[in-house]
Specification:
This protein has 141 residues and is mostly helical. The chain has 5 helices and 4 strands, in the order αααββββαα. The protein has one domain. Strand 2 and strand 3 form a beta hairpin.
């Protein structure tokens, strides 16, 4: 399942984050990774569970730092996930689980990744900024 999106926030916080990213990209990357792990933990609480395929395929990739960006990818499925025991690929199964808002599940619900991301999008930038600032303070910089 490939999901892309962007997060918006307060202009001052975004500017502060961009400045921090230029000055200490590794710290920003670590903070983003930590936030992504938190989002995955929240998401796993909402994943429908029948065979366990979806829940077990959740992942957070290591941060990627380039000269112009820092990114962390999280999602479900991918080449390492097991095949859906009910037929088809794990990616197909997970996409249907995520998008079918009419389906009824004993455990979990649709939009299990999108909803936690949306709920936490307003605090993403400020959380990352605070985390990096705390790391800088601990180092005595």
């Amino acid at each position: 399942m490939a999901t892309t999106g962007s997060v918006t926030g307060d202009k001052a916080v975004i500017a502060n984050l961009k400045k921090l990213a230029q000055e200490c990209p590794e710290s920003v990357a670590r903070a983003m990774y930590t936030h992504a792990e938190f989002l995955m933990t929240e998401s796993r609480k909402e994943v429908p569970v029948d065979t366990g395929t979806a829940r077990s395929s959740g992942f957070v990739d290591e941060p990627k730092i380039t000269s112009s960006s820092i990114s962390v990818t999280l999602g479900y499925g991918g080449p390492a996930s097991k095949v859906n025991p009910k037929g088809g690929t794990a990616a197909d199964y997970i996409e249907i689980l995520h998008e079918d808002t009419q389906a009824s599940h004993t455990t979990g619900k649709a939009k299990f990744l999108e909803d936690p991301v949306r709920r936490n999008s307003k605090t993403f930038f400020s959380d990352v900024v605070k985390s990096v600032q705390n790391e800088i303070r601990k180092r005595g910089v």
